[in-house]
Design brief:
By secondary structure, this protein is mainly β. Helix content is 6%, strand content 45%. Strands 27, 28, 29, 30, 33, 34, 37 and 41 form an eight-stranded antiparallel β-sheet that branches. Strands 6, 8, 19, 24, 25 and 26 form a six-stranded mixed β-sheet that branches. Strands 9, 10, 12, 16 and 18 form a five-stranded antiparallel β-sheet that branches. The protein starts with a helix and ends with a strand.
Length: 616
């Protein structure tokens, strides 16, 4: 019963729909399949490369002048992979198996290992580097579009963070000129010469030059038309004037006037202002003006389109006498012109900026088994712990400091990755270095000895003291170069033939000299007296705190300077005596003592005391 009711209801509904479709003429389709499609829009992100610095960052020395410390490591060459190395109790570092517990060449060799000098510049504590020294990073690079041979990873050096180089901007002089002219006009006339004032939006006005010229031309013509007799004539030109009121200077060209007299014959029947009955006379005067503007402000426009107005005028007068009947007269024409040249200064890029590329990095590779934990790679909150070699790779970047001609001063450096579309990424850790700083010492004062009682010269058998002199670190101020200070000297001789002897020969030996030095809280009063000077002579200080001086004509020549030739041996930290180190601009004060032997005579003026500073 229920099913029939449902069937009847369904039939009634179909009838109603069919009737409605017929009544309103709406087409309908029954029992036919239909479908459609859409095209999705998928834009793949143009991913900018990501660069992370790993734990390998090393500064290397240049192999030409090693410092106090030459680090070395013991390498277990028989372990060729990290797994075997660590299993054997060694440490895998930068692709080699090291044995840190073996700290001497002998101990290292005893176990069949290899002692290797690393040349790491472990002494450098400030950001300065010299030609040939190197900064090296290992970096991890990701590009989600793809990491292939089209990606360029390089060490960049520049004047902005990231190593980019700004355009080199220089001040350049340019010139713009404007001219105006009256042309040639019959006198009298007045005229304003008009030239634009300097448009200050062009640049900075640095120079103005005004050039002008003025002229006046006089033409006197007459023809005696009396057919019966000749005549005498006079032409009196009473003066002509061209006046130009230039800025800062008024110029007046004045024709001083002239008188001309003579005679002509009777009319020759041709009015040509020539022949036997006529004359044509020409006179001309001109001048030029050239001066530099002193008050530049009067040449500058205060508003767009403002002009410089230069008034000019001219007049003249003449009389012709003695001829009763004639044709002709006197014509005067004149003119003036002016040119104003503005020299202005603008800043222009004389060389374009660029990405600062200096060295291409070496692809060293990584894969899913490579330990990249030290790179701390992450994108936002995503921590990346596995190297996906399809979109990631590792590179080693070694930047070598070039000569001062191309690398001098302060630079930002970084490792940068650039893909084929020009997208770039760089390490977060920018570095700021001073390359090839000037290293110099400043010595102020002289080594003049005075006697204790003030008499002239040093008395044999006594001690004399010099004026206190200053020895300073004169390296580039902002370079941060620390100088380790040393002293050496030679014997002294009399350069003249004076029969010198002190006490047994014509030589004043260096061991007669000592010095006292102070640097901040430290002095040679408590000098540690470490090492020897001149090979076998022990470094020593006397009761006054004066220290002896070792022989030396060059750094480490003829004997090593370390632990022996320092100026002050105090406050030793590691291999260095911190009291002996000078920062840029810092100075030590030194006073010398000469103990003159007895007997002694001569003028010992030939010999040297040397001061040495080594950048550490």
């Amino acid at each position: 019963m229920i099913n029939k009711k449902r069937a009847l209801c369904g039939l009634f509904l179909i009838i109603i729909i069919a009737f409605a479709a017929f009544a309103f003429e709406i087409p309908y389709i029954l029992a036919v399949n239909s479908g459609g499609s859409i095209n999705p829009r998928i834009n793949v992100e143009d991913f900018s490369p990501k660069v992370w610095m790993c734990d390998h960052r090393i500064v290397y020395d240049d192999n030409t002048e090693p410092g106090r410390i030459t680090p070395a490591i013991c390498i277990a060459t028989y372990y060729t992979n990290e797994t075997a190395c660590t299993a054997g109790g060694a440490v895998w570092v930068d692709g080699v198996c090291t044995v840190p517990s073996l700290t001497t060449p002998a101990d290292c060799a005893a176990f069949g290992n290899t002692w290797t000098v690393t040349n790491e510049l472990v002494e450098r504590i400030n950001n300065y580097a010299f030609e040939g020294e190197q900064i090296q990073w290992d970096v991890l690079v990701m590009d989600k579009n793809k990491v292939d041979q089209n990606i360029d990873v390089f060490g960049a050096v520049g004047d902005t963070r990231g190593g980019s180089k700004r355009p080199v901007i220089e001040k350049v002089n340019k010139t713009v000129s404007y001219c105006d002219s009256t042309g040639k006009l019959f006198v009298p006339w007045t005229h304003n010469l008009v030239v634009p004032k300097f448009n200050t939006s062009l640049g900075t006005l640095v120079k103005v030059n005004v050039n002008g010229s003025e002229f006046i031309e006089i033409n006197a013509t007459f023809e005696n038309v009396d057919p019966n007799s000749g005549a005498n004539f006079t032409i009196e030109y009473t003066g002509g004037n061209v006046s130009v009121n230039f800025p800062e200077k008024n110029i007046a060209l004045i024709n001083s006037g002239f008188d001309v007299s003579g005679s002509v014959g009777k009319y020759d029947n041709v009015t040509d202002f020539g022949g036997t009955s006529g004359r044509s006379l020409d006179f001309m005067n001109s001048s030029t003006t050239n001066f530099a503007g002193n008050n530049l402000s009067i040449y500058k426009a205060n508003s767009p389109g403002e002009n410089l107005i230069i008034p000019a005028s001219s007049f003249g007068s003449a009389e012709i006498g003695g001829l009763a009947n004639f044709n002709g007269g006197v014509g005067t024409m004149s003119g003036a012109n002016v040119c104003v040249s503005y020299t202005y200064q603008v800043e222009e890029a004389v060389s374009p900026g660029n990405n600062g590329i200096e060295v291409n990095c070496l692809r060293i590779g990584c894969n899913e088994t490579t330990n990249i934990s030290s790179c701390n790679a992450r994108i936002d909150e995503e921590n990346i712990s596995v190297c996906n070699s399809s979109i990631m790779d590792m590179f080693s970047c070694t930047l070598t400091v070039e000569t001062p001609e191309s690398m001098y001063g302060e630079f930002w450096i970084n490792a940068v990755a650039e893909d084929s579309d020009g997208n770039t990424g760089m390490m977060d850790e920018n570095e700021y270095w001073f390359f090839n700083p000037v290293v110099a010492l400043d010595i102020e004062g002289s080594m003049d000895f005075r006697s204790a009682d003030g008499h002239d010269g040093v008395r044999p058998g006594t001690s004399a003291y010099s004026e206190t002199m200053l020895v300073g670190n004169d390296a580039d101020h902002s370079s941060g170069v620390l100088m380790d200070m040393f002293i050496s000297g030679t014997d002294f001789y009399d350069s003249s033939s004076s029969g010198a002897r002190c006490p047994e020969t014509n030589q004043l030996t260096l061991d007669n000299f000592r010095y006292f030095a102070t640097n901040g809280a430290y002095s040679t009063v408590n000098d540690l007296q470490v090492g020897t000077r001149s090979g076998s002579i022990a470094r020593n200080r006397d009761g006054e705190g004066y220290v002896n001086i070792g022989y030396g004509i060059g750094f480490n020549n003829p004997h090593p300077f370390y632990d022996g030739y320092e100026i002050i041996q105090q406050q030793k930290v590691g291999p260095y005596y911190t009291a002996n180190i000078l920062a840029p601009g810092a100075e030590m004060a030194l006073t010398f003592k000469l103990t003159l032997p007895e007997p002694c005579q001569g003028n010992f003026d030939t010999g040297s005391i040397y001061f040495w500073g080594e950048a550490i």
